[in-house]
Design brief:
This protein is an alpha+beta fold. The chain has two domains: 3-143, PK beta-barrel domain-like (M1 Pyruvate Kinase, Domain 3, Beta Barrel); 152-217, Winged helix-like DNA-binding domain superfamily/Winged helix DNA-binding domain (Arc Repressor Mutant, subunit A, Orthogonal Bundle), CATH 1.10.10.10. Helix content is 18%, strand content 27%.
């Protein structure tokens, strides 16, 4: 059953090496992200960040302090992984997991990373593209795709389970596919060891010698194709 989630209040694009820039409208591409945004990437689980206006109001934040792509009337803290949203006529998003509050937020307001708690925003992927603009209606379509774990360790396990036979995955790319910062690579050896012997050798440092091909993440989001949201030509 469809759920009315209010309106899209604002759009921002984050070019590489630049701060987010507020725009009136933007073009989104299925399986990729927003045109011109540095997080547009076919194998990323965090193509877009959705933030809620209520968090801004409650904490009296300046515009774009949460560095979101889309500002919604809805409270993103209530969003669930696996749910699908439609914005406007065709633009459709897959909700992935909540965005971790990092120390960079404190540049906008001291102590913000602690104060924001679980209200930083929800990360998402683009299922169906199109042009969006502020004022578009946001509609919840329900849980139409598998959920991703909030715990980064479980996401690491999920990615390693998807590794094709006869391949290895470099730590930095594992971080990218699991949706965590590159700094987490230092924790990977211990975290992977705790997963058990079946995971030994699946992920390696970039400098590690290996005769096996490196996996880049192709096919990680094949469930979007199987569910009919994208065609098989998409990654």
């Amino acid at each position: 059953m469809e759920q009315d989630l209010g309106h899209l209040l604002g759009i921002a694009v984050r070019p590489a090496g630049a701060a987010p820039q507020r725009v009136r409208q933007a073009e989104a591409f299925a399986g990729h992200g927003l045109e011109g945004d540095r997080h547009a990437d076919p194998v990323s689980p965090r193509q877009l960040l959705l933030a809620g206006a209520l968090a801004y109001a409650d904490l009296d934040l300046p515009a774009l302090a949460l560095r979101e792509n889309l500002l919604l009337e809805a409270d993103t803290a209530s969003f669930r992984s696996g749910d699908v949203l439609r914005i406007g006529a065709t633009f459709t998003l897959r909700l992935m997991f909540q965005c971790e509050a990092c120390g960079s937020l404190d540049r906008h307001q001291p102590g913000l990373s602690r104060a924001i708690g679980g209200r930083r925003g929800m990360l998402a992927r683009v299922l169906a593209g199109g042009r969006i603009q502020a004022g578009d209606r946001v509609t919840g379509l329900g849980p139409l795709l598998p959920a991703w774990p909030e715990d980064w360790r479980e996401r690491v396990r999920m990615v390693l389970d998807a590794l094709p036979p006869g391949h290895v995955l470099e730590y930095r790319q594992l971080a990218h596919l699991a949706g965590v910062a590159a700094g987490y690579c230092r924790a990977f050896p211990r975290a992977i060891a705790r997963l058990g012997p079946d995971y030994a050798g699946k992920a390696v440092p970039a400098s590690a010698p290996s005769g096996l091909p490196r996996w880049r993440g192709d096919g990680l989001f094949a469930d979007e194709v199987r569910a009919g949201f994208r065609d098989a030509a998409g990654t």
